[in-house]
Amino acid sequence: MKILKFGGTSVGSPERMKKLLDIINPAEEQIVVLSAVSGTTNSLVEISSKLLKEEKQEATSLIKALHQKYNDFVIELLPEGDFRAQGQEVVDYHFNFLATLANDMFTHIEDKVVLAQGELLSTTLYHIYLKSIGVPSVLLPALDFMKIDEDNEPDIPFTTKHLQPILDQHKGNNLFITQGFICRNSFGEVDNLRRGGSDYTASLLGAAILAEEVQIWTDIDGMHNNDPRIVKGTKPISHLSFDEAAELAYFGAKILHPQSVFPAQKYKIPVRLLNTMEPKALGTVISTESEKGKIKSIAAKDGIIAIKIQSSRMLLAYGFLRRIFEIFERYKTPIDMITTSEVAVSLTIDFTDNLDEIVKELNSFGSVEIDKNQSIVCVVGDFGAEKHGYAAKVLDSIKHIPIRMISYGGSAYNISLLVNTDHKVEALRSLHNRIFE
């Protein structure tokens, strides 16, 4: 069995939803994971935000506008008659439910329920569409088998235990439709895998049932060797290792959710990145194998804060770094890059909600400097210890650009450079022109 995930753009209109059958083969065993229709999750986030602020009139207006959008969607997607009536009934049910939330007390628990409505709508409407054209399919409720534990980590054994019996009940059926993104938490409440989590759902399902492969269908033909929005002449990468793909996803390659690599890697399930608009394009295969001895790609991550802590107490001291890192741990703030000297440590973060509190505690160690408006530029490839010349080539490519930090050797797969965001575009283009000339 294969897992096929389609993002919001791929189901962004009735026409695109219908065209999915150009890719999906109902004769093959497949679980199709759908995101919400493009724009829906953003609208639901806005509705939820209004309800949390008790701006009920504004929320009600937004609910009505989105309801009308789906009324039009149903008319275009489904033929007149029973199937359109079924589709309209589904849409009315979900939006009447949203309307009731505007009249009750609204908390962060209901917030998660609101965000789940997009995937519930897209999958049910697609299931009805398939029925309307005589294509058999089974709708799998993700809330029955997708679960996260008390640490918000996915429970793959739970998914295997609860999904496999459902699949066994439907022996002889090839096509299964389910929701991406949504799940239940350890309390049984509706929750989610955070933004971009449909990729994660697909990877987790692939791991849970040991699928043949996971296919992530988006609107770009695989992972490129640089950001095509900024750099001209980029090309898709044919093969990446799981580690290389994880680095690129984390450091800015938007095509893939950063966490989605790990379940597939653990269970050795190949992941294929493909283009809905060009189904015949080869895309990118992510697996345990990769081409050795070459630089693969460049990515960048914005919104970075650099923090430098300088203290003579660090000299020849032990436990100093541990005490610094404990501050970030207490405030649940991940660290991206780290460099150290005898009397200073520099690091970067991108989660700034608790920055003031963190800096206040760091001041007890010594002087603290903060640099905002920074970007991490990440060069990914085969940088094993026995390789030579790559670091020099990377640095020579951007010798005209000021560099705030360099991280090399922490991984065999990347060189990370911290630059002012104003220099990011020039850095990406210069690296591309020199490395891929």
Automatic annotation (TrEMBL):
GO terms for cellular component: cytosol. ATP binds at residues 5-8, 218-219, 229. GO terms for biological process: homoserine biosynthetic process; lysine biosynthetic process via diaminopimelate; threonine biosynthetic process. Pathway: Amino-acid biosynthesis; L-threonine biosynthesis; L-threonine from L-aspartate: step 1/5; Amino-acid biosynthesis; L-lysine biosynthesis via DAP pathway; (S)-tetrahydrodipicolinate from L-aspartate: step 1/4; Amino-acid biosynthesis; L-methionine biosynthesis via de novo pathway; L-homoserine from L-aspartate: step 1/3. One of its GO terms (molecular function) is ATP binding. Residues 377-433 form the Aspartokinase ACT domain. The keyword Nucleus does not apply. It holds the Pfam family ACT_9. The keyword Membrane does not apply. It catalyses: L-aspartate + ATP = 4-phospho-L-aspartate + ADP. Residues 2-275 form the Aspartate/glutamate/uridylate kinase domain. Keywords: Amino-acid biosynthesis, ATP-binding, Kinase, Nucleotide-binding, Transferase. InterPro entries: AceGlu_kinase-like_sf, ACT-like_dom_sf, ACT_Aspartokinase, Asp/Glu/Uridylate_kinase, Asp_kin_monofn, Asp_kinase, Aspartate_kinase_CS. Its EC number is 2.7.2.4. Substrate binds at residues 41, 119. NCBIfam families: asp_kinases. Belongs to the aspartokinase family. This is Aspartokinase. It comes from Pedobacter cryotolerans. The lineage of its organism: Bacteria, Pseudomonadati, Bacteroidota, Sphingobacteriia, Sphingobacteriales.
